[in-house]
Amino acid sequence: MKVFISWSGDTSRRVAELLRDWIPDVIQTIEPFLTVRDMEKGTRWFSEISEELEGSDHGIICVTPDNKEAPWIHFEAGALAKKVGKSKVCPLLINLEPHDLKGPLVQLQVTRDTREEFLLLFRSLNREIDKPLADERLKTYFDRTWDPFEKELEEIKGSVPASEETIRTEDDKLNEILEYVRREIRFAKPDIQFTGVTMGGSSDVNVIDHNYKQRQAGVKKELMEYMESTNAFVRWMIKENTVYFDSELSRVSEKHIIALYKIVHRNGFTQGEFDGSS
Hints:
The protein has 278 residues and is α/β, with parallel strands linked by helices. The chain is built from nine helices and ten strands. The protein folds into two domains: 2-166, Toll/interleukin-1 receptor homology (TIR) domain (Rossmann fold); 192-274, Alpha-Beta Plaits (2-Layer Sandwich). Helix content is 47%, strand content 18%. Helix 9 (254-266) links the parallel strand 9 (242-246) and strand 10 (270-274). 26% of the residues are buried.
């Protein structure tokens, strides 16, 4: 499996090179690619990058405070998302938080520069290879190589100023909650099969869900039990595979919002919003 590592600027390049050397030490069958060391001199760089983007199965975008708005980062992120899908493109945040991102990058599932989230990233990559490692073996390789990687990463991070504190809006806070929930449920796989066929320029998607009634009953039961036990009542309804919450949900504490969203995703649903005031 080929992983394209995108970078822009000196700090981002150093992190990308470090990742390029580390990833095969954990999962040997992964082939990382980054332009600075892997393109031969004299090659037509734009054509070569386009070919590598086209041939990649996964993407990691090294994002730092000084390149988070760089056009090149957004170009490669967009090209990767178009090729492999948004779920397989991961912005790696160096001295940044998710609410620091703007533009297309906010739509992607980020990885913070912590041990726990790097392990989640490797587990995500491992699931995509033809013969994935057993999780115990993956963690053994990860633990064995983490300390030297972390030492070099911290040296790089020490040369990067942390992002300036920004004023966070309510939308920023809710987006961060959603990102937290997505990371928590990264391994959830509801028993749903999707089949699609393109006809007349539009996509007709048929959903074959063998356990829908069971999941629907489960999410109803868990939501009602949680609200009764915490007095965190909010109106909600289920339509197809989405649980819609009253737009007044934002008045509930972040702790309760996180818990409610976890229940929704754990049962294989997505969350939405409706205006209950009308």
